[in-house]
Amino acid sequence: MTSVVISTTMADVEEVEVVVAHSERATLRVGDVFLKIDADQTRIDVEVEAMAMVPIPTPKVLWRKPPVLALAALPGTALGHLGEPSTASPAAWAAAGAAVRMVHDAPLPPWHGKSLDEIASRLDGECEWLLANDVLPADMVTRNRRMAETALRPWTPVFTHGDLQVDHVFVDGDEVTGVVDWSEASCGDALFDLAILTLGHEEHLGDVIAGAGTDVDRDLIHAWWSLRCLTNIRWLAEHGYGSPDEFPEVAVLKSRR
């Protein structure tokens, strides 16, 4: 969703930036402070606890008064944005891969992630919705669903960010300055994090893998790309992110062969 700027009469603040706003949550930026407002306090609980556990930089918690969590802004800029070319260096992408590996090597959080059955059930439901509403061509859904299903195999759980979009990783030059938005952190598949980070940025997959320093089955990364896109389109459409034809996720689905 496009950010907008709203005037404010607060004495020491010139403007409030709406970073994200939909029916579930909103994030506002006021100077160097981010205010996260979430209807589900469980997500905020997870975010605060996860940031305290991981061995990489995260935003400093300034204060919390439900339903609001105040976080300090991270230095640097986002590694990139979905649907746009990244201007970050290959070394910065490799540094992101190294940071992700550090998270995956950390002790597991005490809460569980989604089970294989839950993920498979959601994939089924979302594909049915896409077809029933003629959102995407049937052959595109079928092809990507077949790819996505290969990701649904047993894995060794690790500490995962759970929503490691490229916008959530901040860098300064070739160094990672921090990672934001930990509300989906859980035990999960390491390849899911790597897939979400490189979604729409396939040209940097090699850099991320090199930084992570581990053997990776790229076919499984591709499978997670398809699964992520298929299961996100309805949510984006229903939360005001525009027409599915314009979603970067649909462009990714079109590119999978």
Automatic annotation (TrEMBL):
Residues 52-199 form the Aminoglycoside phosphotransferase domain. InterPro entries: AGP_Transferase (IPR051678), Aminoglycoside_PTrfase (IPR002575), Kinase-like_dom_sf (IPR011009). Coiled coil: none annotated. Gene3D superfamilies: 3.90.1200.10. Pfam families: APH. Transmembrane segments: none annotated. It comes from the Bacteria. PANTHER family: AMINOGLYCOSIDE PHOSPHOTRANSFERASE DOMAIN-CONTAINING PROTEIN-RELATED, AMINOGLYCOSIDE PHOSPHOTRANSFERASE-RELATED-RELATED. This is Phosphotransferase. It comes from Plantactinospora sonchi.
